[in-house]
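As the next step, I selected for study one protein, both as residues and as discrete backbone shape codes, as given directly below:
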Amino acid sequence: MEVLAIGTIEDVQPIRDRLSSEFRFLEEEGLSVSVSENDRGNLHFLDCRLGEHRKLNRRDALTSFQHYVANALSDVIINEWERNLIRKLIRTGYYYFTEEEQDSIYDYARRGLTGEAGGKDAEVLYKINRKGRILEKLLEYLKGNSELVVEGFVTFRLREYVAELEEAVDQAVDDFLLEREYDEFIRLLKYFVDAQEPKLDLVHVFLNQDGTFKLADSQQNVINNEYLEEFVAEMVESEVNYEDLLVSALITIAPKTLTVHTRKTGDTDETLETIRNVFGDRVKFCYGCLLCEERGLLKPVQAKGK
């Protein structure tokens, strides 16, 4: 009989359950596997014994046995251990963050591991990719070894995988800090807007696709430069793009209400999202109206069938 001993310091239950599921498939192929458990120091071992295999020769039976074990272990590492590995990397490398901040970093890291596309489908795809690489390493290891301690295998045989998790955590920290800086930036802008008297009751922003813009008051008159002279004088020596100019100009005017006319959407455009976050209920977005048409900003939307 072939014996494979699998040991772990962690809870052995996920491994036991996953192996049991795989071994049921082996039984359908005519291969019986018995499992016994024992402790060796702080390690808990599952001794998996491959029994009679009359339908297959010894080599094919052993190969099939190893594949099913590797499939079970790769699933456990990806679906059970990966979460703990990421949290451990965060606790070890970024212990100075609060528990709540570490939870946010963890969420960023998990999203980062799904790739730029994000979403459930991407998460599954990237998991399958990582599992495939782990499965390959496990099969390679099991060909020459009859004992496997999962923690040691992850540390010494899955260095590239662990490095990928470390990279995801490092990037998650950068993303978390950037968002925190952005939130602080928005908080300060909201304070500036709320603290000053509105210079106009209503401002229309006509935002073109190339980022250029025009500002008009409630009577559709271009806003008088007297509101922006000091602002422009301070900015003339700086390299500022249209988006920065727009946000800064609106904060300078601090209108009671604000209408942004654009073809863009606040869900995908950073500038519009910043305006939304700063002005809150004061702002509304227009994606096509008579004013847009008159200004030549947008073409009128044709009704269906016309």
